[in-house]
Amino acid sequence: xxxxxxxxxxxxxxxxxxxxxxxxxxxxxxxxxxxxxxxxxxxxxxxxxxxxxxxxxxxxxxxxxxxxxxxxxxxxxxxxxxxxxxxxxxxxxxxxxxxxxxxxxxxxxxxxxxxxxxxxxxxxxxxxxxxxxxxxxxxxxxxxxxxxxxxxxxxxxxxxxxxxxxxxxxxxxxxxxxxxxxxxxxxxxxxxxxxxxxxxxxxxxxxxxxxxxxxxxxxxxxxxxxxxxxxxxxxxx
Length: 237
What we know:
Distance between the termini: 10 Å
Mean pLDDT: 97
Largest sheet: 9 strands, mixed
Low-confidence stretches: none
Number of helices: 7
Strand content: 25-35%
Oligomer: single chain
Structural class: alpha/beta
């Protein structure tokens, strides 16, 4: 099995997603925009597409961030959808998937940075993976926006600060506004590269400080991620 990971910034890392890939002997390729990579439009040589997060939003222009071309990425995701690839978008990646499917992203009611409870919806009871989880459970958060909803989309989970945390667009296309993939290494990278953001939003009700962020055990949310990725990989034919 092959996976392709789109990364917008070095510090918005795949984290525990890579642990799952290594454990399951999944061959991984990358598009790392911050290194000047371009998208492999000609050959979609992968089974699963992971679209990671970033400080950008789908409205960010190339003038604002020269290495981020939202429209090109949206077109690439559309091509992957047409090719029936399994797709997971995280944070910005979830918003870009929504855009590719015709659903505009919007701002979350609250900015969330930290580890907070995720609550499952009634729709989650019918989902192949999330029906297995007790509610609530804790996951990572680092965002100010949220993905748009298509007519077919189902919201599987929400938090107190954001009503769209896990969106199921189809049985093999999901958007996670939250971060199941966080681990201590990726959290350290986020903290090191987000000092201005952490300072600007400190004191808000759903924003933790660096010490709090580093104090969490991320293994339980990673374990749930692995269960989800086992399912997602099972959709690949």
